[in-house]
Design a protein that fits this description.
Layout lengths: L7 H12 L2 H11 L3 E2 H8 L3 H13 L3 E6 L2 E6 L2 H17 L13
Antiparallel strand pairs: 1-3, 2-3
Length: 110
């Protein structure tokens, strides 16, 4: 049995699934700036290594992230450098339509 070719809609849906979770979005935004080790990613994002592992598996399955073993550590990076540019562009468009409130008060009127 051969490899299934995905339609454009299926590819976009996979990308949407990856971005639909705040932890996965945080991983992608962190990796946009360059490769990182799983333990460092977990610390930077504020999740356990087990939780991060599950999200990284999803991102690998979606084809957005690749893993490279380096001894006892695993380094993760975006699967294609164009993804970093695309994530930056997407964030820029979204923020121009829906500004983010950066204040720490939940009742912020912005």
């Amino acid at each position: 049995m051969g490899v299934k070719t995905l339609t454009v809609n299926e590819v976009l849906a996979r990308f949407g699934k990856a971005l639909a979770d705040p932890t996965r979005a945080a991983v992608l935004m962190r990796l946009k700036d360059g490769p990182a080790y799983s333990g460092d990613l977990a610390d930077a994002i504020g999740v356990s290594k087990q939780v991060l592992s599950n999200h990284l598996a999803c991102l690998r399955d979606c084809g957005l992230v690749v893993a490279e073993s380096e001894g006892r550590r695993v380094r993760y990076e975006l699967s294609d450098a164009k993804l970093a540019h695309a994530l930056g562009d997407l964030l820029g468009v979204i923020l121009s339509v829906e500004p983010v409130c950066l204040c720490a008060v939940p009742e912020c009127p912005q």
